[in-house]
Design brief:
Shape: elongated
Strand order of the largest sheet: 1-3-2
Number of helices: 4
Number of domains: 2
Helix content: 40-55%
Largest sheet: 3 strands, antiparallel
Number of strands: 3
Radius of gyration: 24 Å
Distance between the termini: 50 Å
Structural class: mainly alpha
Strand content: 5-15%
Low-confidence stretches: none
């Protein structure tokens, strides 16, 4: 855009018009997720060694895992459910998927392609 259109009557740049044009131009660049992203998909555990993820995170990854292992998502979903652990004492924490045990079960069913 030429800067001439942002000049006021005195020939000086109008900051308000310039800022508005900048904001209008960048609006299409904003990231819009196709689906909600589970928080644990973009954060790490404090130790980085936690073998658990949320069921929502596991569901988001199910199609990718199925494709990598050359099996159907319908074969992955029951395993996710099987290795989903309940909150401790029934109320402490949130349900979580034990990724280590899930991967072992997936390896027994269909070794990953490396």
């Amino acid at each position: 855009m030429p800067l001439d259109q942002f000049k006021d009557a005195k020939g000086e740049l109008d900051d308000v018009k310039l800022i508005k044009a900048f904001n209008d131009d960048k609006t299409p660049l904003l990231f819009k997720a196709k689906a909600p992203i589970p928080p644990d998909a973009v954060t790490a555990s404090s130790s980085g060694l936690d073998p658990h993820i949320s069921p929502a995170n596991a569901d988001v990854q199910a199609a990718r895992v199925a494709k990598a292992r050359k099996i159907s998502v319908d074969q992955v979903q029951p395993l996710i459910a099987q290795y989903t652990e309940r909150p401790d004492l029934g109320f402490l924490g949130a349900p979580r998927v034990n990724v280590l045990m899930l991967n072992v079960a997936l390896d027994q069913r269909s070794p990953s392609s490396k």
